[in-house]
Write a structure and sequence with these properties.
Layout lengths: L2 H22 L4 E2 L3 H4 L4 E2 L4 E8 L4 H15 L2 E8 L5 E5 L15 E5 H9 L4
Parallel strand pairs: 3-4
Antiparallel strand pairs: 1-2, 4-5, 5-6
Length: 127
């Protein structure tokens, strides 16, 4: 990965962590061990394995597969946060993790929303 892409990714993670702290009052922070040990990009969202992407063009299918793999390894629910250049943050979650009656739905059945809606969902799971 080029240095510019790493800086963009780090900046995106820091920006999103700040926004989630403001919205949720949770202690959300970058996972500084993610490169060495793998795992979620952000820590502090109870029950969610967070993957963060900042890009010019979307690659949702690839990003979602990566997010689901990270979540499966940690036994958490996948949450993909992405922001395209000059666009607001978007969040992708599995339908089975947020909708009653869909508990058996495959992870491929996902929905996309904004940060405010995700924050409302996440508040339900905060201790």
């Amino acid at each position: 990965m080029a240095a510019m892409q790493r800086r963009k990714g780090k900046a995106g993670e820091l920006e999103l962590a700040r926004l989630l702290r403001e919205l949720l009052g949770a202690n959300v922070a970058r996972n500084l061990e993610q490169t060495r040990q793998g795992g979620a990009d952000l820590l502090g969202l109870s029950g969610w394995a967070v993957e963060v992407k900042r890009a010019a063009l979307p690659r949702l299918s690839k990003w979602w597969l990566q997010t689901c793999s990270q979540a499966e390894a940690t036994g958490q629910r996948p949450a993909l946060f992405y922001r395209l250049d000059r666009q607001p943050w978007r969040v992708v979650v599995a339908l089975r993790h947020v909708a009653t009656g869909f508990e058996s739905a495959p992870l491929a059945m996902r929905l996309e929303t904004d940060l405010d809606c995700f924050a409302a969902l996440a508040r339900e799971a905060l201790p």
